[in-house]
């Protein structure tokens, strides 16, 4: 089932999400719905706060990036199979040089900006069967993970922009929170009933 994506301005996007256990109600169905919602919106990641649930869960399928000829061969190779469910994820360490990449967010339609992030992350998470994994992600895989991880920490990519950029985006962000935006997918706005 395709769920409405919560728009910028909704308080759930600012909450630090809580951990869940294997007995979380209808978890498999929730994960399937999140993946369907992400694909419907042409996204590469979707975090539970973006569908109104302040829990430490996000899904990623970065395989569309594998077609990007501008990326390195190793990045493309990593991304072609980078489809995962992350439950109770933690960043253990960030390292490497910060690098810039143009990011967007399904909760903030029509806003894209260059964001600096570290190039490598050491992470720990549980998969949908609650098996624990410890991994190292680099390049674009690390970036996509960091972006979704920020959501479960109550952080948006716009928080990482310069004061000037934030000022320039202020009106656009206010309009998104008021539902004055046209998205190609279902959205839920903080001050309105669900649109479309």
Question: What are its keywords?
Answer:
single chain, 196 residues, alpha+beta, Peptide Deformylase, 5-stranded antiparallel β-sheet, two-stranded parallel sheet, 31% strand, globular
Describe the structure.
The chain has 196 residues and is an alpha+beta fold. The protein has one domain (5-188): Alpha-Beta Complex (Peptide Deformylase), CATH 3.90.45. Helix content is 26%, strand content 31%. The strands form two sheets. Strands 2-3-4-5-6 form a five-stranded antiparallel β-sheet, with helices on both faces. It has a two-stranded parallel ribbon with strand order 1-7. Strand 4 and strand 5 (108-126) form a beta hairpin. The model has no long low-confidence stretch (mean pLDDT 94).
User: Which percent range fits the helix content?
Assistant: 25-40%
The separation of the N and C termini measures 15 Å
In total, the number of domains comes to 1
List how many beta strands DSSP finds: 7
Shape by Cα distribution:
globular
Give the strand order of the largest sheet, numbering strands 1, 2, ... along the chain.
2-3-4-5-6
In DSSP terms (H or I, runs of 4 or more residues), the helix count works out at 4
In CATH's first tier, which class applies? Alpha Beta
């Amino acid at each position: 089932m395709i769920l409405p994506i919560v728009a910028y301005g909704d308080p759930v996007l600012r909450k630090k999400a809580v951990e869940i256990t294997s007995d979380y109600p209808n978890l498999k169905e929730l994960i399937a719905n999140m993946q369907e919602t992400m694909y419907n919106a042409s996204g590469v990641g979707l975090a539970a706060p973006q569908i109104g649930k302040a829990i430490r869960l996000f899904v990623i399928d970065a395989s569309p990036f594998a077609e990007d000829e501008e990326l390195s061969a190793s990045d493309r190779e990593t991304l072609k199979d980078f489809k995962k469910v992350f439950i109770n994820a933690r960043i253990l360490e960030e390292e490497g040089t910060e690098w810039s990449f143009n990011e967007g967010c399904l909760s903030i339609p029509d806003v894209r900006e260059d964001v600096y992030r570290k190039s490598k992350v050491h992470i720990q998470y549980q998969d949908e069967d609650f098996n624990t994994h410890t991994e190292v992600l680099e390049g674009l895989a690390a970036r996509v993970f960091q972006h979704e991880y920020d959501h479960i920490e109550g952080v948006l990519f716009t928080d990482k922009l310069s004061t000037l950029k934030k000022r320039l985006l202020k009106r656009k962000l206010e309009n998104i929170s008021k539902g004055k935006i046209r998205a190609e997918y279902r959205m839920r706005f903080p001050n309105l009933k669900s649109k479309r």
